[in-house]
Amino acid sequence: MKKFNIRKVLDGLKEASSPTPSVQVGPQENHLVQETLQSEHFQLCKTVRHGFPYQPSAMAFDPVQKILAIGTQSGALRLFGRPGVECYCQHESGAAVIQLQFLINEGALVSALTDDSVHLWNLRQKRPAILHSLKFNRERITFCHLPFQSKWLYIGTERGNVHIVNVESFMLSGYVIMWNKAIELSSKAHPGPVVHISDNPMDEGKLIIGFESGIVVLWDLKSKKADYRYTYDEAIHSVAWHHEGKQFICSHSDGTLTIWNIRGQGKPVQTITPHGKEDGKKPESCKPILKVEYKTTRNGDPFIIFSGGLSYDTVGRRPCLTVMHGKSVAVLEMDYPIVDFLTLCETPYPNDFQEPYAVVVLLEKDLVVIDLAQNGYPIFENPYPLTIHESPVTCCEYFADCPVDLIPALYSVGSRQKRQGYSKKEWPISGGNWGQGTQILLLSFLMLQVLYKLKTAKVFDRNRSKEDKGSTDVSDEDPFAIQIMTWCPESRMLCVAGVSANVIIYRFSKLEVTTEVLLEVRMQYELNDTDSPDGGGGGGEQTAAHPTPGAFPQTSGPPSHPSTSSNNSDGGNIPCLNTPLKQSPGYQVDLVVQSVWVSGEPPQPITSLALSSSYGLVVFGNSNGLVVVDYIQKTVVLNLGTVELYGSNDPYQRQPRSPRKTRQPSGGLCDINEGSTTSEDRCKSPTSGKVCFTSLCFPPIVLLSVCPPRGANPLDHRDNSFSRSRSSSVTSIDKEAREAVSSFHFCEGFARKGDSTLTPCLYVGTSLGTLLVLALTLPPAGEQRQLQPVIISPTGVLVRLKGSIMRMAFLDSTGILLTSAFEPWFEPNVTADEEREKVRKRRPVSVSPSTTQDFNESQFAVVCSEKQAKVISLPSQTCIYKHSITETSFILRADIVQMNPGVCVACFCANGHIMTLSVPGLRPLMDVNYLPLTDMRIARTFCFTNLGQAMYLCSPTEIQRITYSQETCENLQEMLGELFTPVETPEAPNRGFFKGLFGGGAQSLDREELFGELAAGKASRSLAQHIPGPGGIEGMKGAASGVVGELARARIALDERGQKLGELEERTAAMMASADSFSKHAHDMMLKCKDKKWYQF
Length: 1097
Known about the structure:
Elements: E1 42-51, E2 56-62, E3 67-72, E4 76-80, E5 86-90, E6 97-103, E7 108-113, E8 117-122, E9 129-136, E10 141-145, E11 152-157, E12 162-166, E13 171-177, H1 179-182, E14 194-200, E15 203-211, E16 215-220, E17 225-231, E18 236-241, E19 247-252, E20 257-261, E21 270-272, E22 278-279, E23 282-283, E24 289-295, E25 303-308, E26 320-325, E27 328-333, E28 338-345, E29 356-363, E30 367-371, E31 393-399, H2 406-414, H3 439-446, E32 449-455, H4 462-465, E33 482-488, E34 493-498, E35 502-509, E36 513-515, E37 520-525, E38 541-543, E39 581-583, E40 586-595, E41 608-612, E42 617-621, E43 625-630, E44 635-641, H5 642-646, E45 690-696, E46 698-706, H6 733-737, E47 741-749, E48 759-766, E49 770-777, H7 783-787, E50 791-800, E51 805-811, H8 833-841, E52 859-865, E53 868-874, E54 878-884, E55 891-898, E56 903-909, E57 913-918, E58 924-929, H9 936-941, E59 943-945, E60 949-955, E61 958-965, H10 966-975, H11 993-998, H12 1007-1011, H13 1013-1016, E62 1024-1028, H14 1031-1041, H15 1043-1089
Parallel strand pairs: 37-40
Antiparallel strand pairs: 1-61, 2-3, 3-4, 4-5, 6-7, 7-8, 8-9, 9-62, 10-11, 11-12, 12-13, 14-15, 15-16, 16-17, 18-19, 19-20, 20-21, 22-23, 24-25, 25-26, 26-27, 28-29, 29-30, 31-46, 32-45, 33-34, 34-35, 35-40, 36-39, 37-38, 41-42, 42-43, 43-44, 45-46, 47-48, 48-49, 49-50, 51-52, 52-53, 53-54, ...
């Protein structure tokens, strides 16, 4: 991309970003607007990531800090504490995470990757960083184990060896357990990779090593030899200890569980096939049990929890987690395959009764936490926004500064959608603290909460759609998928456009209603005569409705009587319901608009959509033209082809066309309770589109639209905008004829050149870079608005740009962004006549400064296309500024946004650059090469909003939020939550008097004496390479930024120092007591032997 060459001439009024001048300054607009935004106001950085970790592969939990860590196949780490405390990290290599191990209550995490590297993460800073890395060169890592309160990490490899790493220095010990020393000397076969390592809960000097082939070895670390070996015919997947250290349990590939005594080498004490049917002497073989955990309780039977092990004849059965408690066996079905699970226990000590209270189950696309303490094992209600991917997301919209009463209203109706039967206990993953910013600012930046879900497919008859799937159109796979959304937060009006060329308008209501039949406004597309070069571009769409008196006059020619019935022209449409539909409180259907099929040809996809609650109008366009619908009167106001918008001012020499024919009504326009549908309509698969309202906890709101998960991701094939030519050339007649409508904007402006009064206008942008103006004549508010027609008249071309028009906005004469007028929300389903009268007389309210603007003052129209941006002065309609944004690429998303100091144009380019331009001067303020376009998902979901925020879907399940505001970047460190909080480690279990007397308690081990360099020597340098990480320096920087973090670290240091001093004092006292005892005994012996002769001894 060409670099911007910014040259300031004459107070910064002239800029150049290309060899030719790109700014035109009118003589009267030189100093009208003082721009306040400068380049120092902008900085780009990632803020937080929401959603479910994409393709998870490993999980770990810190039982003291109450923090959960999840690793993914792309090398990402997601850390979860209490709601609002989340963190995202990424391994540079991008290799999959195979295992995670917390240094419990130490604020550190060990990760093992498929590229045979091990990393130590420092979690004592707000943005975790790697402190040390160790890269193995000759062996592949298969399993890791870090004992509680130990600094020595055991690493098992594919060759069957076990290496030991010091987690403080991340250096290898010379102590190695070789596979050939561990197995029987007489065994000739290799035991396979190490699949499990763990130390005996009661004796740290005994280590269990499980090999894939079915061999388990109890290794004595001190004597460096195997004490016992246990052999089973089937492969081993996992091993778990009983807390007393006398038994362990193994899970095998044939669906069996074997329980072994550590002193019994021959056969297992017990062999269980939990899901196997008894077939004679031996139970039938089942699917492998991939993991088993053995947890004990003080007052009851132990829990045996495992995944897998189902019978092979259960074809199509969902993945299961089995909980065995005493004689009861509970099989818990999951929606997705199980990746891993962990049992949460009351104590971190492995040698005490575990007292399990919950199970965290990591699925491929979900996270489930099961309550073990309640009957029926209910699940906890998940407070994290991990379900945005229930169906593939197709588009996103991001709204900041929403009305204060909006989120409570959405929450109140959304709370009724929640399923019942959750556990009554609090969410067990509750670690970390929120940042030190104000709570409102913090939560809005760091939290995401699903407020409300709306299924748009409910208005369609999905039962009838199963009968016929005659077409092979793209929309067959997901006929209800949502393509475009527009939403007015103030009036709470919502409008969605689907891939099947349907538009649904929703009103928000707190009352439940039942509608007899949903209205369907029929749109029909007419083919042109054969002399049209494109065979059907200019005629636009024709309604199958009565001609509206307020519509723009059609082209001359006598209307023809219906020669083609609607029965054979709309055979592929999705049928609407013709039975009463109960609509719950929330968003309720007000109007359905649908384009019909003609002669077996589907309608053109909708390319643009806009709604004005102040005017009561919805407009949508496609590659042929546009349609304006009055949703108050339930009528079509305007239906024009793109060519007819130009009138006699068409700049392109198109071929002449025949007069457009008018069809008689086939279904008519009617009230929402008396609409009609046709029984011949055909539909596609019975799947459903969905709109999901998610909140950033305070005014910002995210709108997600999703389509059902059927086949390929619709993002990969629905957006055809990338396949069309990006050339700005207009010499092709075919391109001219297929000029699509690309954007709309409702605003009060100057409709014609030289106007002195503001009038309601509709601005229309096309794919050929033309911006046209339509003047709106609205009836007075109240009862007349219900009866008199809306009149629309095109007034001509305002401006032309290179590339398709993306976005437009308007400023007043002082440079303040004009927001569109809106109607405040009211309850539509009122029953009392007085309330209805109040609603009818209610006038639209506009917060736009234009209503108080002097009519003699000017406006500025800011227009952005795929290639360039222009600022037009109104009503003179002169271009005062223009800027060529890109020559070699094109813009995917552009928004005119409000920053704290002023207004700017924010653009996301296909080459990955994010740029901002000043308004109205169009000076380049920021240009960052952020993210190259890797897939269509980013293009479809990237959006900007006010206050320097933006977001996109970085994976099919995750939302990445970024900021381009310098102020937010500077305050981000303070706003981020802290994962690590100072918590005292629980006291170790009391051994009891008799165990202490007879040595029956846990045996400790001085691992430093065994594994240290003095005893074990140095490891081979060629075995692994130590790589110091940047975490130390970054940790120092992060620590310096937070006072609370500094105090916490000081407190921890004092606690550690006090603990060490206490231990030293205890040792000194013990030595003094021992010395006194020795002195006393020596004195007594001296007195006894003092008077004895030598022969008396």
